Amino acid sequence: MAKKISSLTSKEKVTGLLYVVSLFIIIIGICSYILFVYRSEYHFADGKNDALEKLERVNSFQNAQSDYYDKITEIDEMVSNINPDVNASYEKRELYYTIGEIKKVTSDNKYDLRYRIFEQVASFYEMKLFDRERLSASQRNIEKFKIELENCRSGIETLKNN
Predict the structure, then answer these.
(1) What is the C-alpha to C-alpha distance for residues 141 and 145, in angstroms, rounded to an integer?
(2) Most buried residue among 101, 103, 105, 133 by CB atoms closer than 10 A?
């Protein structure tokens, strides 16, 4: 009963080594296949495709900016040149239509928050037009009150003279 089983023959050592080496080679082969061969475009090309998509979105935004630059300058000129005292509804309608085209860019590209700048620019020009109309109405009211004040003063002067 006192036999030691710890001593292995050289044939058993070689066989055990072959099993370990073959198992190691099989595991390396499976891992290499999974990493480099099996759906390789899925594993490593995702970052590249995402970067290309982002670059494409940036380019499309820059193109949209350059396409609508002329319309925005046209809106700026129209708002600056419009005379609120003159009732030219066709000019205001055309102006609001052009502003609506600029706002539409935002609604067409809701997935990208950079396009919100078009809505903000359109809102700015709407507010600027509203302010010009309000300022003009205020100035007309001031002129009207000045005329009425002068009429009142002249009326008081005539009463004092009589």
Answers:
(1) 6
(2) 105
* Helix/strand/coil (H/E/C) assignment for every residue in 112-149: CHHHHHHHHHHHHHHHHHHHHHHHHHHHHHHHHHHHHH
pLDDT in tens, 84-123: 777 778 888 899 999 999 998 888 888 888 889 999 999 9
pTM for the model stands at: 0.61
Number of domains observed in the structure of the chain = 1
Q: Residues of 75-98 as b/e, b for ≥16 C-beta within 10 angstroms?
A: beebbeebebeeeeeeeeeebeeb
Which residues have a Cβ under 8 Å from the Cβ of 57 and sit 6 or more positions away?
112
- 103's enclosing H/E stretch is helix 89-108
For 65, the domain range is 61-135
- C-alpha to C-alpha distance for 110 and 36, rounded to whole angstroms: 38
